[in-house]
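User: I'm putting together notes for a lab meeting next week and I want to include a structural view of one of the chains we've been expressing. I don't have a solved structure, so I'd like a prediction I can at least talk through. The sequence is below, exactly as it appears in our construct file.
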Amino acid sequence: MATRILLADDHQIVRQGLKSLIQQNEGFEVIAEASDGRAAVQLAADLEPDVIVMDVGMPGLNGIEATRQIAAKEPDAKVVALSMHSDRRFMGEMLKAGAKGYLLKDAAFEELATAIRSVIADKIYLSPRIADVVVDEYVRHAGEYTGHPSAFAKLTPREREVLQLMAEGRATKEIAMDLKVSIKTVETHRRQIMEKLNIYSVAELTKYAIREGLTSLDA
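Assistant: Thanks for the context. Below is the predicted structure for the 219-residue chain, given as structure tokens.
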């Protein structure tokens, strides 16, 4: 039986390239594509794919939060993260969210195929290139991060969702509609985010969200 794969990436050209390459490999089948994290969560629930190839940086709901939601609802789903970031924070948060593999976007296709086979076999796959970077960064910066908790430590999952949408320029009413909550609830989250981070301007919150990997400049 073919391994059923869901592709989640906000760039259509990337999805098309991945789909073409994946389907050249006997035993792999791309069953659906998602252009943002929220769509990935819904498709994972509807289709129950064997593997989700997940872009880390996506608009609306980033890959880390999407992976967290998928892992909570579909514990058998195997998420392989594709990222431009070799920073250990991104890798660590993806693995904590439930991803079983992590590799860089510029990796050769053969590495993605290896990662997919590894996670299907219930193994964790970490690109050797990333492992080298992570070990080197840890040695050079050990202890530096303890005094600076990340957004993933400071904020709740829902607060991180609200912050990402704020940083992407969504109005309060739009955020409420996206998250299916009241405007008052969004305003409460916004106030709590500002108080927790001690940041009170949208511009500075946007910079923070980008720096912490909740969104990106091209999201």
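A couple of points you could mention at the meeting. Confidence is low (pLDDT under 50) at residues 142-146. DSSP finds eleven helices and six strands in the chain.

User: Perfect, that's what I needed.
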